[in-house]
Design goal:
Layout lengths: L1 H21 L12 H15 L5 H23 L7 H17 L7 H10 L1 H4 L4 E10 L4 H14 L14 E6 H8 L15 E6 L3 E11 L10 H25 L12
Antiparallel strand pairs: 1-2, 1-4, 3-4
Helix pairs in contact: 4-9, 5-9
């Protein structure tokens, strides 16, 4: 199929060149289609359809490319690109992608290790807790009921007077950040304790009052560079690309003069 395609393209290109020699036209009205453009579109067509296109389908693909180019040029001629925010945004994005692609995708270990050492806090796994709790709704004498529940529990008595809680009763492997997000900052006071399997409280949350029992705790852990090298590489490249774009924009800004409408309020 590839051989046939190149033959077809060769014949088409020959006809195009002969016509161009015999009938010279304004350069602005000349559309030159490269083999790479056609091969790229044919490849995309084959992936989408699941087979190689035949000669008529290749001709249709090329016709579509030509028609798109003609409409694009006519739109530019009519000034339809002027003040179009979508077009401006797409062109800005394309230039951004081109600048980012200029950065090497294979930084050496020295650069990556340096980045890792400068961002240790970002790679540290925080301490995590597994816990259970009893919840007392603030509208139902929560503080007195929670104190009564704690006294009974410490005596070894069964207690079943807590209120149902929307997020559930048991929580596993939660960081302090997760706990703060779910319950609020005051609730974190219970996790300053090193005691396990002991009921603590009353503790106030954004929902009401709680008794809390910490079931398990894992200490914070910093993985070595070798353990997380792939993630460090991703983070390094993202930061490098952001830095590249910011630096490029700063250079360009120095060449431009910005004038705001004096009547702008």
């Amino acid at each position: 199929m590839t051989k046939k395609l190149f033959i077809f393209l060769g014949i088409g290109l020959s006809i195009f060149l002969i016509d161009l020699l015999l009938n010279p036209v304004d350069e602005d009205k000349t559309i030159f289609i490269t083999n790479d453009e056609v091969m790229s579109l044919v490849s995309a067509w084959s992936i989408q359809v699941g087979r190689d296109p035949n000669v008529d389908e290749i001709r249709s693909i090329i016709d579509g490319l030509v028609e798109e180019e003609i409409l694009y040029r006519e739109a530019l001629r009519l000034g339809l690109d002027n003040e179009d925010r979508i077009i401006k945004r797409r062109l800005a994005q394309k230039l951004t992608f081109l600048r980012q692609e200029s950065i090497s995708n294979d930084p050496d270990d020295k650069a990556l290790a340096g980045y890792y050492d400068s961002n240790l806090d970002a790679y540290k796994n925080p301490e995590r807790f597994s816990f259970t709790h009893l919840y007392f709704s603030i509208e139902k004498d929560a503080l007195e009921r929670s104190k009564l529940a704690l006294r009974k529990i410490k005596k070894g008595d069964n207690y079943s007077g807590a209120d149902p809680f929307l997020l559930g009763k048991n929580f596993s492997n939660r960081s302090k950040k997760d706990i703060k997000k779910d319950f609020g900052i005051n609730f974190l006071k219970a996790f300053d304790s090193s005691e396990l399997n002991t009921w603590l409280g009353p503790i106030t949350s954004s929902y009401g009052i709680h008794l809390v029992k910490i079931l398990d705790k894992s200490e914070s852990y910093l993985p070595t560079f070798a353990e997380i090298r792939p993630q460090v590489k991703i983070d390094y490249l993202l930061e490098e690309r952001d830095s590249q774009i910011k630096g490029y924009l700063e250079e360009l800004k120095s060449e431009y003069k910005v004038v705001l409408n004096p009547n702008f309020k």
